[in-house]
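Hi D.,

Good news: the full-assembly prediction came through. Inputs first.
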Amino acid sequence: MRERTTQQLVATYDALIAACDHPTAEQLLKRVRRQLPRVSLGTVYRNLEKLRAQGRLRVLHLGRGVARYDAVLTNHDHFFCEGCGVVADVEGAGASGTFARLSGEGYVVRTARVSLLGLCPSCARSTRTSSLSRRSNRRRIVRERRRPG
Amino acid sequence: MRERTTQQLVATYDALIAACDHPTAEQLLKRVRRQLPRVSLGTVYRNLEKLRAQGRLRVLHLGRGVARYDAVLTNHDHFFCEGCGVVADVEGAGASGTFARLSGEGYVVRTARVSLLGLCPSCARSTRTSSLSRRSNRRRIVRERRRPG
DNA sequence: ATAACTGCAAAACGTTTGCGTGTAT
DNA sequence: ATACACGCAAACGTTTTGCAGTTAT
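Then the structure:
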């Protein structure tokens, strides 16, 4: 066997699909518990990670806060309100004119942040030859080297 | 009195200015301790927050990892290597052509993320009338509302 | 003199994980 | 039948905080 379709997995994914507020893991827990009252937070995290690995959701790390989850996979960016934590979808945030448009709609954009993630030349090189691409392995390496001397 | 220039604050800022690797708080602790061996991690965090409030540094939250600190305030973006954790400066990441340029330099860009942060219309409205703009207040409100029912 | 700051240690926070039990296949 | 997933609770890593003592003004 490999990869079961459990009630908890289905309920978590359904809750995320139904959500329009980019919920946190704990918000999802509350919603899943309406159907399955005994679900634990650990299970929600495990299933969210499973869905992420399957490419069925995106994890949003916006600022220092909690992770937010999004099952809408079409290309879009996000606006995070530092006041109340609301997350709004934004189309084409990289394009010029977005700032003006949001301002016209009442938003106050304090920072527009572009974060590029991937592999630096050195790591890209070793990926080709070694086991760096295996996920568990990669994570270990991140842990080891993330904070050198 | 208000806002003292302590050895710990100066040493922390100096260490960050001297750094070219976008260090974490713990990396900064190690470097500050070369001069002041008894400095604690709590003090480093407190002083980093003080410097941030003064606008003398930027905090980088790149993915799920630790916060990285940057005293270079000129407009630039960052590339975060998911392999080794290296952070590289990138000029004009929002502009077209950046992706191709980085690829030519050996980088593998897996995700380009634009995060907009600020205030949503509702919070922007209440800022004008209430005490939301007072920092301690704002943080409390974020805590309260970040994860609604 | 005194308010701001420190070191220390404990708490807080979001997230992960070990273990024994349960369940989908 | 059995491997996968669960609930629970403890552990984890990063950051914050309470407190009693110290230091810059």
